[in-house]
Amino acid sequence: MKKTKLRWVGSFIVVLFIVVAIGAIILYNHFFPMAESIQYPSIETISAIEITNNNLEKKYTDNETIETISQYFLNAKATRTLSISDNPTKEEYYIVNIIAEDDSRLYKSYIYKENSKWYIEQPYWGVYRIDKDMLPFLENDN
């Protein structure tokens, strides 16, 4: 009788733990959702990509470079960090303007470094982790 009671208590604790864990995961995903997919025009429609900051002003118009930069954007990993302002709150960041031929909308993003990781932020849309291999496009050739 005692062993049966002990088994029921043990089973109840295991089931209770599983229910609490699932509930915690659901609440976490609800209150801290992943960012939506990055907003990006069709690569074929991009006529230029401009990257600027205090010390840099670059404009890429060749298809190969546009394709390469686009792949970095499209492969960026969504984070749970919210974008809640027009500009990043970081002191230093790069502004990336993507100009599409058939779209009247300017695709503006920001790239910055935080805790030795690089991120793309799209205002009010999301923050995405980006591969550091994109850094050569952010360097000044002069």
UniProtKB/TrEMBL annotation:
Domain (DUF5301) ranges: 35-128
One Pfam family from the record: DUF5301
Keywords tagged on the record: Membrane, Transmembrane, Transmembrane helix
Domain of life: Bacteria
Gene3D superfamilies for the chain: 2.60.40.4250
TM regions (residue ranges): 12-32
The protein's name in its UniProt record: Uncharacterized protein DUF5300
